[in-house]
């Protein structure tokens, strides 16, 4: 195992897979197939985060906070990619535009600026989610005793 993987407690594909658990909500939301405030939406929002915490509690990586921040960063990449790929579907053909002094900027330039802002926002959202969930996971790792891996079942 490499040093980075050793510190994170999971191989890179597992970290990406854990992040990917949150990707279906991005797709379903952008396609307007789920609505905020519904039980299905809540499950798709909080279910993956609970699985991230459960995985960290089960595996007990040396740096649980960092592990979940990395998962959150990968989630941000999925979030950004999903929003970019589903941009037209999400806006139903009526793409957003800039207002105020920037309203006169060419539509193609506006789209590039808005897509870039959405990508940065998605990446930041993923990292912030990782920080918040990572803090919970790290706290729970301190509060809850680790299971004895060598004990008889």
Automatic annotation (TrEMBL):
The keyword Membrane applies. Keywords: Membrane, Transmembrane, Transmembrane helix. The chain crosses the membrane at residues 38-58, 65-87, 116-140. This is Uncharacterized protein.
